[in-house]
Amino acid sequence: MVKPDGVQRGLVGEIIGRFERKGFTLRALKLFRPSKELAEEHYKDLSAKPFFKDLVDYITSGPVVAMVWEGNGVVASARKLIGATNPLNAEPGTIRGDLAIQTGRNVVHGSDSPENGERETGLWFGEGALVEWEPSLKPWLTE
Ligand code: DAT
Ligand code: MG
């Protein structure tokens, strides 16, 4: 997901482009402003943290671009492409390492496990939102 700061800063194309160029397949995408309830459910594991309210305020402060990407090892790979939570610790070449300077404005979210990927897909898109399609480049990306 491109967070509200990423959308406001005009980084949507840059971020989507990195996942496209890597070779992952886009299965769903939408721009919308998440509700407080959705944000709280999404980040419920962090509800006891002191920064929880600020996090929910941030994520609901404007439109986000939610996406579902598919491909070999996509969850772990996406976490690497995204970089460390604190952008100052994120390696150059990663999205956060290249494009952000503060944890509270780290431009992008990525699911941290396949199970959470499934959970978050259901939460952000609901049932039946994934588009089935065969990328024509598939034989050039995987054998
Ligand atoms: P990530 O987004 O890398 O998966 P996370 O799941 O631990 O990181 O936390 C979710 C978001 O919460 C993170 O992107 C930014 C915010 N956050 C995490 N730790 C924080 C902290 N110590 N201070 C402020 N915000 C924090
Ligand atoms: Mg996380």
TrEMBL record:
Zinc recorded as keyword: no
Keyword Disulfide bond among UniProt keywords: no
Enzyme superclass (EC): transferase
Domain of life of the source: Eukaryota
Location of the Nucleoside diphosphate kinase-like domain: 1-132
E.C. numbers: 2.7.4.6
Gene3D superfamilies linked: Nucleoside diphosphate kinase-like domain
InterPro entries linked: NDK-like_dom, NDK-like_dom_sf, Nucleoside_diP_kinase, Nucleoside_diP_kinase_AS
SUPFAM superfamilies assigned to the protein according to its UniProt record, in alphabetical order: Nucleoside diphosphate kinase, NDK
Cofactor(s) of this protein: Mg(2+)
Binding site for ATP: K3, F51, R79, T85, R96, N106
PROSITE patterns assigned to the protein according to its UniProt record, in alphabetical order: NDPK (PS00469), NDPK_LIKE (PS51374)
Known catalytic reactions: a 2'-deoxyribonucleoside 5'-diphosphate + ATP = a 2'-deoxyribonucleoside 5'-triphosphate + ADP; a ribonucleoside 5'-diphosphate + ATP = a ribonucleoside 5'-triphosphate + ADP
Active site: H109
Keywords: ATP-binding, Kinase, Nucleotide-binding, Transferase
HAMAP family noted in UniProt: NDP_kinase
Family per record: Belongs to the NDK family.
PANTHER family xrefs: NUCLEOSIDE DIPHOSPHATE KINASE
Name the UniProt record assigns to this protein: Nucleoside diphosphate kinase
Organism: Coccomyxa subellipsoidea
Organism taxonomic ancestry: Eukaryota, Viridiplantae, Chlorophyta, core chlorophytes, Trebouxiophyceae
